[in-house]
């Protein structure tokens, strides 16, 4: 993918002297980010027998909105109420949001993103 769409062309660096692997970097090189995410995926499979993802976090979060009596009417949601993997998914989503916030504050780029064209946003969402 980098051959066809180099990531450095999509970003205007304010300080190009900072390395791409520090917490204070403006952006991380995609290969480094991929290696970090792959390492987390490995441990997630070993510890939780589940791959990383956030789609089931919606169901896990929704299961905590209802009381246990109300969950009896929703057997699908009931199975997301307990279990290490369900709680782990919620922690994963919380950690992604918190980590993004911390990283953007350390790098000094918080709330400085340029708007994305609606076509690109829809295409990116579809591809995800």
Structure write-up:
The chain has 128 residues and is mainly α. The chain has one domain (7-127). The chain is 56% helix and 0% strand. The chain is built from 6 helices and no strands. It has helices spanning 30-48, 55-65, 68-71, 75-78, 84-107, 118-127. Helix 2 crosses helix 5. The protein is elongated. The mean pLDDT is 81. This is UPF0394 inner membrane-like. It is found in: Cell inner membrane.
- The overall strand count is 0
Question: Beta-strand level of the residues, as a percent range?
Answer: under 5%
Distance between the termini: 15 Å
Classify the helix fraction into a percent range.
55-70%
Query: How would the global form be characterised?
Result: elongated
Helix-strand string: HHHHHH
Mean pLDDT: 81
Uncertain residue segments? none
Write down the domain tally.
1
Rg result: 19 Å
């Amino acid at each position: 993918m980098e051959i066809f769409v180099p990531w450095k062309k999509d970003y205007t660096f304010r300080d190009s002297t900072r390395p791409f692997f520090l917490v204070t970097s403006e952006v991380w090189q995609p290969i480094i980010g991929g290696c970090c995410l792959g390492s987390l995926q490995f441990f997630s499979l070993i510890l939780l027998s589940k791959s990383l993802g956030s789609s089931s976090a919606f169901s896990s979060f929704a299961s905590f909105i209802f009381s246990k009596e109300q969950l009896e009417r929703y057997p699908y949601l009931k199975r997301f109420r307990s279990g290490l993997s369900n709680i782990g998914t919620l922690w994963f989503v919380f950690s992604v949001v918190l980590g993004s916030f911390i990283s953007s504050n350390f790098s000094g780029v918080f709330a400085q993103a340029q708007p994305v064209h609606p076509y690109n946003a829809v295409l990116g969402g579809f591809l995800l």
